[in-house]
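Supplementary Note 3. Input sequence used for the single-chain structure prediction.
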Amino acid sequence: MIAAGFGFRKGATASSLEDAFARACEAAEPEVLATVDDKAMAEAFRLFAEERGLPIKAIPPDVLAQQKTTTHSDASRVRFGTGSVAEASALAAAGPGARLLTVRQISADKLATCALAIQEAT
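The predicted structure, written as discrete structure tokens, is reproduced below.
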């Protein structure tokens, strides 16, 4: 299972999400898109998921806070209790024992981030 996790600001557009996604997904195709639950139904994110035909997984903030991220944003740490919403969302969505394939990649407009995580079949 490969999950693409996203973090994004209120002003992020589908283009912002696409740019971050393209930067993170050069060598892998995710099966699910994930973000913190209060952003999961944001119009731009929902449209982005629909265009790709991928399901959205909403991750509660307390689950995000349990994930160990590689990169750290002070804003993410203060608001969500994690160093990276994108990395934590990807790890949580991929499942127990998941590992990052890519650290968060930032869109050119700095409004969205995307990271990939994988849980390999056992």
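Strands lie at 2-8, 32-36, 56-59, 99-106, 112-118. The longest strand covers residues 99-106.
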